[in-house]
């Protein structure tokens, strides 16, 4: 019987993600409150929001993509910046960007590391970050220009670390989405 991967990713300014790889297909529920603000001056008041409160990813451990490959089964979380007229004007001018910050994997430093420990922790895997077309985004390095495009956001998929054997188990990571004014 193929082992199934069950993932739970919480997106927000402080993005907590967890992933379980197990033989069963039990659903796990979660609640997340999403809020945040981007303020540089009183004239341009902006808020960032993620369009999901919980995401469940399922996959077959024998079919995980390798770190650095294009996503084939990602769950996408749209991100939006909204605000007053001055905020929208700056957004149209390309003056905001997203940067995804967290503990990077120990192999290539490009994906969100698995912070789970113990016998139940998955080994040889990380949480890959992807743009809206499934292209990998390097954690802590890649800056994504924010826009009003409704398809903008971040995708998540469990990835196999190059040179490692992936084993079923839990995966946990914490990701911060920084919004920077350019």
Automatic annotation (TrEMBL):
Residues 34-179 form the Fimbrial-type adhesion domain. Transmembrane segments: none annotated. The keyword S-adenosyl-L-methionine does not apply. InterPro entries: Adhesion_dom_fimbrial, Adhesion_dom_fimbrial_sf, Adhesion_dom_sf, Bact_Fimbrial_Adh_Pro. It is found in: Fimbrium. GO terms for cellular component: pilus. The keyword ATP-binding does not apply. Residues 1-23 form the signal peptide. Keywords: Fimbrium, Signal. PANTHER family: FIMBRIAL SUBUNIT ELFA, FIMBRIAL SUBUNIT ELFA-RELATED. Gene3D superfamilies: Fimbrial-type adhesion domain (2.60.40.1090). This is Fimbrial-type adhesion domain-containing protein. Its main location: other. Belongs to the fimbrial protein family. It comes from Cronobacter turicensis (strain DSM 18703 / CCUG 55852 / LMG 23827 / z3032). GO terms for biological process: cell adhesion involved in single-species biofilm formation.
């Amino acid at each position: 019987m193929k082992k199934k991967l069950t993932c739970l990713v919480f997106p927000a300014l402080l993005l907590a993600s967890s992933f379980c790889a197990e033989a069963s297909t039990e659903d796990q529920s979660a609640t997340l409150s999403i809020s945040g603000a981007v303020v540089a001056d009183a004239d341009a008041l902006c808020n960032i929001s993620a369009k999901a409160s919980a995401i469940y990813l399922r996959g077959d451990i024998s079919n995980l993509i390798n770190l650095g490959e294009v996503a084939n089964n990602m769950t996408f979380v749209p991100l939006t910046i909204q605000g007053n007229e001055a905020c929208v004007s700056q957004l149209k001018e390309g003056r905001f960007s997203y940067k995804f910050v967290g503990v990077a994997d120990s192999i290539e430093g490009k994906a969100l590391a698995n912070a789970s420990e113990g016998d139940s922790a998955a080994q040889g895997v990380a949480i890959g970050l992807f743009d809206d077309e499934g292209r990998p985004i390097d954690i802590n390095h890649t800056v994504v220009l924010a826009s009003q495009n409704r398809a903008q956001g971040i995708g998540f998929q469990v990835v196999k670390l190059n040179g490692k054997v992936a084993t079923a188990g839990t995966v946990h990571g914490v990701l911060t989405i920084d919004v920077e004014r350019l």
